[in-house]
Amino acid sequence: MVFPPLVEPVAELTDAERTRTARHRVLAGFGDLAQRRLAAAHVAVVGAGGLGSPVVLALAAAGVGTITVIDDDVVEASNLQRQVMHRVADVGAAKVDSAVRIAADLSPTTVVRPVAALLTAGNARELLTGADVVVDGTDTFATREVVAAACDELGVPLVWGVVQEFHAQVTVFWSAPPAGTVSVRLSDLYPSDAARDAPSCAQVGVLGALCLQVGALLATETVKLIAGVGDPLLGRVLVIDALRGRTDEVPLRPATASAPTAAAPTAAAGAVPAPPATADPASPADPASALSPAAAIPQLTPAETRAAQRAGALLLDVREPFETARGVIAGSVAVPLGDVLADPSRIDAAAVVVVCQVGMRAQRAAAALRAAGVEASVLAGGIDAWNRDPAAVLA
What we know:
Layout: H1 15-20, H2 22-25, H3 31-40, E1 42-46, H4 52-62, E2 66-70, H5 95-106, E3 111-115, H6 124-128, E4 133-136, H7 141-154, E5 158-164, E6 167-173, H8 186-189, H9 201-204, H10 208-227, E7 236-241, E8 246-251, H11 287-291, E9 299-300, H12 302-310, E10 314-317, H13 321-324, E11 333-334, H14 337-342, E12 351-355, H15 360-371, E13 375-379, H16 382-388
Parallel strand pairs: 1-2, 1-4, 2-3, 4-5, 9-13, 10-11, 10-12, 12-13
Antiparallel strand pairs: 5-6, 6-7, 7-8
Helix pairs in contact: 4-5, 4-10
Pfam families: Rhodanese, ThiF
GO molecular function: nucleotidyltransferase activity
InterPro entries: Rhodanese-like_dom (IPR001763), Rhodanese-like_dom_sf (IPR036873), ThiF/MoeB/HesA (IPR045886), ThiF_NAD_FAD-bd (IPR000594), Ubiquitin-activating_enz (IPR035985)
């Protein structure tokens, strides 16, 4: 469904901007009018990291008139693998400063409003008011809840994406879409409070190139909404499995049959790495299935893990060598996750307790082992949980 454009166009572009955006202006169904709408638009990008970086680059290059970039963090060396807006010389500087510099280099007419602040429930409405579209590029579900709640209250479309390891999801939430369109909120995709234990990218990693792919999709959805072209992802979730080179789509409906369509917006609740209600949770292309605990796989405490080991179970540590070099559980065997997934039959044991840093990679290894006929369980919380146990010892 094509939605009406979100903004009225500016009267005209400068000669320099017409030349710079010439390839947009000759697009069939886009043209000069859509480009002038972009010039009039105000987009708020929350987060200037792995997703926010390519979004800012793409929107500035596209000729969006105003971009508010909200992030309280500074650039770290470990960001540079995926946060392409920053440079080595930026390490230690505010991330929003990179947005100001890079946008000026790409589009002199684009105004970047840097906000070096943490977006919270107390300031979210104030910071996002005035934006025609909000793009969520944050890296914690707690902040995503806050962003979604503010957008629901303001009735502003929220272009949303999440990346973890080799998987991603992209969609659009909108509490007050055009008449005749069903509203979809973050809480329709992820139930409230279920994301509290979701691991961070620092714990389980993320493919840098995938951030660019997802950021480009977020920017494209934003442009479509502003210009009133194409079919936005409202009511649909794009699901990406980078390892398999596979992109799928699942429908997303309101969580309850009585969900409002274009009524007064309400606050969205929380998010958790779990599949949409309409998705097939067993689908290998669904990143949520790889992120959410499977009820069929036993989750053991550190005490239960020690008991299983004494009873003859193999403790299989699926972390990478640089991680196991910092310490392993005595008597465990280290085999990186990729090797286990490539050939589960290499693990010659009747019973296995799989260990990783926080439990998510162990979950995937255990699922593969159980499919191969091995009785596999997981150390819940991984090495982090083990280290918090008074009786735990690392070799």
